Amino acid sequence: MQLDLFAHSRDVMLRNDLLAALRSRDAPASEHALAALAAEFPHDPALAPARLLAGRLSPDIPPFPTHADALQTIARLERETRPAAASLFGEQQAERWLHPAWHALAHAAAHLPYHPDAPEAHAAPLFLRARHWCEAEHHASAIESWRRIPHPLAWTAEARFHLHGLDTAWPLLAELAWLDAVRFGDLARRLPSKALTGLLLQYEREFADTPADHAWFPAWALLDHPELRTVLQTATTPQRTPQEEACRTLIRLLALERQGRHADIVEERKRLRALNGELFGLYMQTRT
Q1: First to last CA, the chain
Q2: Residue 7 reports pLDDT greater than 60
Q3: Do 178 and 215 meet the contact criterion of CB atoms below 8 Å apart?
Q4: Residue 264: which residues within 8 A CB-CB, separation 6 or more?
Q5: What is the DSSP string of 197-253?
Q6: What is 145-200 written as a DSSP string?
Q7: Cα separation of 228 and 258, whole Å?
Q8: The model's pTM
Q9: Is residue 10 within 8 Å of residue 40, measured between CB atoms?
Q10: CA dihedral 42, 43, 47, 49 (to 10 degrees)
Q11: What is the DSSP code (8-state) at residue 188?
C-alpha cells in the first residue's frame, strides 16, 4: 500500500516541481521539470499549458514596429498565455505571474504614440496591467491634451489612485464621468476602494437608470458627502456639460449656505432645478 501511495503521488511531486519552477520564472529549472514530468507521465494535463508558459518566460521583447503588432501580441497573451497561467495557478496567482509579461509589453510599446483607434497599444495601460503606477502615469500624462481624452484620462486617474489615494484621483474621476460616463463606471467599479464602491452602489440603487447616468454621480455624491467640494472644485472640462454645471452649482450652494447668503442661495437653487429636477429634489430633501 505504501508503494502504491508513493507511485500515486509521484506525478503530484513532479507537477509541483514544475509549477514551482514556473512561478519563480526559472527557465532552466522549468525545462528540466517539464522533461521529468513528460518522461514519466506523458499525458499529464499540466504539460500543455506548462510548455506554453515555459516558452514565454523571457522578458525580452523587441520594440513593436506598429500598433497592429502590439495589439496582436497583446491579444495572444490574453488568448493563450492568460488561460494557461490560470489553469496552472488559479486566476489570482496567474494575474500576478503575468505582471512581468505586461511590463515587457509596455516597454516594447513605449515608443508608440497614442492612437485613438488603438488605445490599448499604448504603453500606459500596459504599465497599469503590470502595476507599475509611476510609469503608467508618466506615459499617460505625456499624451497631448490627455485630460480631454477619455482613455488617457482614465489611465491617469487609475495610476494616481494607486499612487496617492482616492482624494487625489477624485477630480480626474469627475472629469471622466462628464466626458465618458460608461468608462467612469467601469473604472470606479474596478478600483479597490470600499468608500467609492459603496457610494457607487448606493447611487446605482437610488438614482442611476442607465450607464450614461453616471455622469451625474459627482454632483449626487456631494449631497451625502459635502466635504468632497474641496477636491471636486478643481475638476473642469471644456464641454461644461449640464452634469458638470450641476456639480459646480452644488459646490457654490454649499459655500453660500455656510455664508448665509439667502438671496444667492435662491438663485443657485433655481439653476440646479433647471439642470436636473430629480437632483434638485434630493438636494431639497437634505435641507428639510
Answers
A1: 79
A2: no
A3: yes
A4: 256
A5: HHHHHHHHHHT-SSGGGGGGHHHHHHHH-GGGHHHHTT---SS--HHHHHHHHHHHH
A6: TGGGSHHHHHHHHHHHHHHH-HHHHHHHHHHHHHH-HHHHHHHHHHS--HHHHHHH
A7: 15
A8: 0.91
A9: yes
A10: 160
A11: H
CA dihedral for 268, 273, 274, 279, sign (positive or negative): positive
Which 8-state DSSP code applies to residue 79? I
Phi, psi of 90 (to 5 degrees): 90, 160
21 grid coordinates? 519552477
4: confidence class by pLDDT, cuts 50, 70, 90: very low
Nearest CA among 246, 229, 237, 240 for reference residue 175: 237
Measuring CA to CA, how many Å separate 215 from each of 71, 74, 174, 212?
Answer: 30, 31, 8, 6
Burial category of 214 from C-beta neighbours within 10 Å (exposed 0-12, middle 13-18, buried 19 and up): buried
Q: Phi and psi of 190, rounded to 5°?
A: -85, -25
Would you state the pLDDT for residue 253?
96
From residue 88, alpha-carbon distances to 23, 35, 44, 145, 158 in Å are 10, 17, 12, 42, 29
